[in-house]
Amino acid sequence: MSSFIGIEMVEEGKLSVDNLEVDEKTGNVVISVNPKIYPMNTIFSAAYILVDKAWVLIDGDPNEEIIVQLRRKDSKINLEELGRSFNNELVNYSVYNVQVEKNAILRGMIVQKALETQSQESDVKIEKKAKKAKERKTVARAKTKRKSRRK
Prior knowledge:
Elements: E1 3-4, E2 7-11, E3 14-17, E4 20-23, E5 28-33, H1 40-49, E6 54-61, E7 65-72, H2 79-150
Antiparallel strand pairs: 1-2, 2-3, 3-4, 4-5, 5-7, 6-7
């Protein structure tokens, strides 16, 4: 076994890099994920992005360690790059989820304001329609009175 800055040759054709284990023989890369750092929804999101490039299997204990196995669909795909892309997607979706949480209150306020504005506009439209209907009735009564006076 040789080791160099987080890279280990586990056996012939099998390489361990940081949280990745690359197996060229089977076309798999296995990624170990800490669920205390990356919640399951983030892991699922990161995996989903790669389903066009790899078959995905997620297993493990959500309290201890999640194991993600990616089996490349095309033999030309570099397994280490595939695993590193998965790691990048974990970071990407983690940032996205943080932003979603930060913006939740603001988004709620915007939706509430939009609904209030819509409601006020609806009230104004209803009032205008009621006013027009009342004006038509008044005009119709006036016409009826004029006709009855002529007779």
